[in-house]
């Protein structure tokens, strides 16, 4: 067997980060934890450092980094603590790491994820926001850096598995007519429309099938998540948006499908457990145990499908529009969504105000073609400023 992979986990304290460590723990002969990281919750990262003893830990927040450094020192642990965005970029580009799990939530993941792409890593991409914001620059960083980009998002991982052997992300797959992106429809798929105004954060994060971080759980309820995933699919698989179809499939058994020109449709099925796509990408093209429950199709019994209702899911409609317009519009969409979702989770705005804030930001947004990553960041910052202004 070849030398174990040296793994960097960006966002190791999150839902995807924890699931990644769970898969790593099952295969100590294959994977070594090289570096771990978080935003500000350093206490969780301290526990992970005690267990995994990585070479580096990176913390975005400088004060939290200092606390972690002091605690590690008191424990007599040799893990070196880096801080800020530059610290995250450093562990992502570290020559001692060959595999990077990009699992920071939101736009904060962009710079370190691009750093991993430029340094030619095997890049396991969960942070869809970085592709939504900067698809063109991101995909050229992958190309120029010689990175191996593998999707972690369950839908995109499913599509990747259904594409022909030897397929590489970024290429337009031959003979594919459409990508069928499945969505559970979230907790409010059949709730009365007039009840949605009163939805609380706790109701919105209670997903019927998946356990996830809070931001993506709200995105799943509004179906903004599926909109972001359409844009993600376009970049990953070199497809125009009109060849990516969203299909509601409440059971979350089929994780997405590929329709070929001859009419064949290939699907990937599995338990709704992110350790399946994580294990798939970490060992690709080999297969390893993930710890996920065996899929019981007799219990699942019925697999249903329906078209999404865009009146119920205005966020999906806004995302489809933004995907069609391209350029700076998806950047503004993503930024406005992050601000609106955070405000909703803090109890500052109601659930149905999320699409209203995003729509207002997009109405005032002037289309532009981002010229660089710096330009993307400036568009993102401006859209955030406008969104915050709308919140008062
Ligand atoms: P989470 O909220 O559980 O974890 C987020 C991680 O990012 C944490 O480790 C946190 O410390 C870190 N972080 C937050 N802000 C940061 C900052 N400013 N700088 C550095 N690190 C920061 O989120 P999650 O559910 O694990 O999702 C992570 C990413 O994976 C998201 O982009 C999400 O869309 C994507 N994703 C998640 C799932 C899932 O099942 N959870 C599925 C598909 C895709
Ligand atoms: Mg997904």
Secondary structure elements and their pairing?
Elements: E1 5-10, H1 15-26, E2 31-38, H2 42-52, E3 56-59, H3 62-75, E4 80-83, H4 84-93, E5 99-102, H5 110-118, E6 122-125, H6 128-145, E7 148-151, H7 154-162, E8 176-183, H8 201-205, H9 214-222, H10 224-237, E9 244-248, E10 254-260, E11 265-269, H11 275-283, H12 297-300, H13 314-325, H14 329-345, H15 353-364, H16 373-391
Parallel strand pairs: 1-2, 1-5, 2-3, 3-4, 5-6, 6-7, 8-9
Antiparallel strand pairs: 8-10, 10-11
The chain binds nicotinamide-adenine-dinucleotide and magnesium ion (MG).
Question: How would you describe this structure to a colleague?
Answer:
By secondary structure, the chain is an alpha/beta fold. The chain folds into two domains: 5-151, NAD(P)-binding Rossmann-like Domain (Rossmann fold), CATH 3.40.50; 161-386, Orthogonal Bundle (Rna Polymerase Sigma Factor, Chain: A). It is built from 16 helices and eleven strands. It has helices at 15-26, 42-52, 62-75, 84-93, 110-118, 128-145, 154-162, 201-205, 214-222, 224-237, 275-283, 297-300, 314-325, 329-345, 353-364, 373-391, and strands at 5-10, 31-38, 56-59, 80-83, 99-102, 122-125, 148-151, 176-183, 244-248, 254-260, 265-269. The strands form two sheets. It has a seven-stranded parallel sheet with strand order 4-3-2-1-5-6-7, with helices on both faces. It has a four-stranded mixed sheet with strand order 9-8-10-11, with helices on one face. Helix 6 (128-145) links the parallel strand 6 and strand 7 (148-151). The longest helix is centred in the C-terminal third of the chain and has 19 residues, at 373-391. The mean pLDDT is 97. The structure holds nicotinamide-adenine-dinucleotide and magnesium ion. The site of nicotinamide-adenine-dinucleotide has 27 residues, from helix 1, helix 6 and helix 9.
């Amino acid at each position: 067997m070849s030398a174990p992979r040296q793994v960097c986990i960006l966002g190791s304290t999150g839902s995807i980060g924890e699931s990644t460590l769970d898969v790593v723990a099952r295969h100590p002969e294959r994977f070594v934890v090289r570096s771990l990281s978080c935003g500000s919750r350093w206490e969780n990262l301290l526990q992970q450092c005690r267990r995994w003893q990585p070479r580096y830990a990176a913390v975005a927040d400088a004060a939290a980094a200092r606390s972690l450094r002091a605690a590690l020192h008191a424990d007599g642990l040799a893990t070196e603590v880096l801080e800020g965005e530059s610290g995250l970029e450093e562990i992502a580009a570290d020559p001692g790491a060959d595999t990077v799990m990009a699992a920071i939530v939101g736009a904060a993941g962009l710079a370190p994820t691009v750093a991993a792409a430029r340094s030619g890593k095997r890049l396991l991409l969960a942070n869809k926001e970085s592709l939504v914001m900067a698809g063109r620059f991101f995909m050229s960083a992958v190309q120029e850096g010689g990175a191996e980009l593998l999707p972690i998002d369950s839908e995109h991982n499913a599509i990747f598995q259904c594409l022909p052997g030897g397929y590489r992300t970024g290429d337009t797959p031959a003979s594919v007519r459409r990508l069928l992106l499945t969505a559970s429809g979230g907790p409010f798929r059949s709730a009365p429309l007039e009840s949605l105004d009163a939805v609380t954060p706790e109701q919105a994060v209670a997903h019927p099938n998946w356990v996830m971080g809070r931001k993506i759980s709200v995105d799943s309820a509004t179906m903004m998540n599926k909109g972001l995933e359409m844009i993600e699919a376009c970049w990953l698989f070199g497809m125009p948006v009109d060849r990516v179809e969203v299909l509601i499939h409440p059971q979350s058994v089929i994780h997405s499908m590929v329709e070929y020109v001859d009419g064949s449709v290939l699907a990937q099925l599995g338990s709704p457990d992110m350790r399946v796509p994580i294990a798939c990408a970490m060992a690709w093209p080999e297969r390893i145990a993930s710890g996920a429950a065996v899929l019981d199709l007799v219990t699942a019994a019925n697999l249903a499908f329906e078209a999404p209702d865009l009146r119920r899911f205005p966020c999906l409609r806004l995302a489809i529009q933004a995907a069609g317009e391209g350029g700076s519009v998806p950047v503004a969409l993503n930024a406005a969504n992050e601000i609106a979702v955070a405000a909703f989770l803090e109890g500052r705005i109601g659930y149905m105000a999320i699409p209203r804030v995003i729509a207002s930001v997009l109405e005032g947004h002037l289309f532009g073609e981002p010229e660089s990553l710096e330009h993307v960041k400036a568009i993102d910052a401006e859209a955030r400023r406008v969104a915050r202004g709308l919140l008062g």
